[in-house]
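ingest -> fold -> write
write: protein_1
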Amino acid sequence: MNVLVFGAGNILLGDEGFGVHMIRHMEDNFEASENVELYDGGTMGIFATHKLEEAEHIIIIDTLDTDGEPGEIRTYELDDIRLNRIPAKMSPHQIGLQEVLLISEVRGKVPESVKFLGIIPKSLEGSVDLSPELQEKVAVVEKLLLVELATFGITLKRK
């Protein structure tokens, strides 16, 4: 089984980099696993299509551009993520992961499962640090990610 944990975002824009910060957090705190790839997708957008198409299962961590409280976490499945089923654009990236997944679908290379862990940002101002509201949610998203991996029979070992 091949699970890709894909962290998206721009680390130069504060909370927008949450997904990348989460990948770095996981790499710093957990041992590598042969069947899980922690991937810093940054703002690659369409250039990350190959990574998404190689995985059997994908867990995406990114900001969510929608109304709500900063730090609010929402989860979506593949059917929710499709462009016509989700009530808001998933991310402020120019070409978002929704579009990338649509391209993969057209090419017949959609993974077996896709889970999106989205968080509402507080600040998208120029900064390499997360806002306190999102920094507080790192442990929460870590737990959600570990639970999701456990559904595939995967347990990551803490360093």
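write: protein_2
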Amino acid sequence: MNKIIINTEYISLSQFMKMESLVQSGGEAKQVIQQGLVSVNNEICTQRGRKLYKDDIIEFNGIEYIIN
């Protein structure tokens, strides 16, 4: 599992995806999220503005990331 350190209280799902270079743009993040290809804490998430906090687990393309 990849540990992701953020220096703020939270980060949005689309910002996280761009920050980690999982997508190349906000538009691409919106598409993959709305297609149900991303899960947060083992639940499919279709909200690109979803706030991610410490200990949230994100899964995309078979890879898991945890927010620290």
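write: annotation protein_2
The beta strands are 2-4, 11-12, 38-40, 43-44, 51-52, 57-60, 63-67.
Residues 14 and 26 are 6 Å apart (CA to CA).
pipeline exit 0
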